[in-house]
Automatic annotation (TrEMBL):
Domain Carboxymuconolactone decarboxylase-like: 47-105
Species this chain originates from: Candidatus Sulfuritelmatomonas gaucii
GO molecular function: peroxiredoxin activity
Taxonomic lineage of the native organism: Bacteria, Pseudomonadati, Acidobacteriota, Terriglobia, Terriglobales
Domain of life: Bacteria
The protein, known as: Carboxymuconolactone decarboxylase-like domain-containing protein
Signal peptide (residue range): none
Cross-referenced Gene3D superfamilies: AhpD-like (1.20.1290.10)
């Protein structure tokens, strides 16, 4: 794989700096994945635009993290799996639930299970949900609008998962304990 430099805010291309500043404010640090994505101002700015929508009103942060972790596993992105495991645990999700997703199983919590199943199905079937799959998500207490919200989360995670797989940035020390292999 190609070697992508990890930019700081100061060293990043001019068109990437504002996006990196926003991500650093959001996470308290500049994640290495963002530092690598900054090689493309177009991609980092696209990520930040979708990121802002994903983390605005709608699904809760724990629910967002269930989708993001599921996507990282479904897309086989070790960096994103470690990153979203840490964020899921910070958001109050139990290690029992994160371990289930990391192992390709469904979480035991009914809402988390519905979110994880929908996210995985959207990725595996490239958006082609059956009526039964759609209805199962709704039956778990979600709305048809939230199906579309999950698509936005999948879009955001696709950016980081694909870029993370290609750029392969190193894990920060704080995420190494959550390192993942398929």
């Amino acid at each position: 794989m190609p070697n992508y430099p990890l930019y700081t805010i100061a060293s990043a291309p001019e068109g990437s700096k504002s996006a990196l500043e926003q991500l650093q404010r959001a996470f308290g640090v500049l994640p290495n994945i963002a530092a690598a994505i900054a090689n493309s101002p177009k991609l980092i700015n696209s990520l930040v635009a979708v990121f802002q929508q994903v983390h605005s009103r709608g699904l809760t942060e724990p629910e967002n993290q269930i989708v993001l972790l599921t996507d990282a596993v479904a897309n086989s992105c070790p960096y994103a799996v470690a990153f979203h495991t840490a964020l899921a645990l910070q958001a109050g999700i139990s290690s029992k639930e994160t371990d289930a997703i990391r192992e390709g199983r469904t979480p035991s919590d009914q809402r988390f299970a519905a979110l994880s199943t929908l996210a995985r199905t959207l990725i595996e079937k490239r958006g082609h949900l059956s009526e039964q799959e759609f209805d199962s998500f709704i039956a778990a207490g979600f709305t048809k609008e939230q199906v579309l919200e999950v698509i936005a989360i999948v879009a955001a995670s696709t950016i980081t998962n694909y870029a993370g797989t290609i750029a392969n940035p190193p894990l920060e020390d704080s995420f190494k304990q959550y390192a993942w292999r398929e």
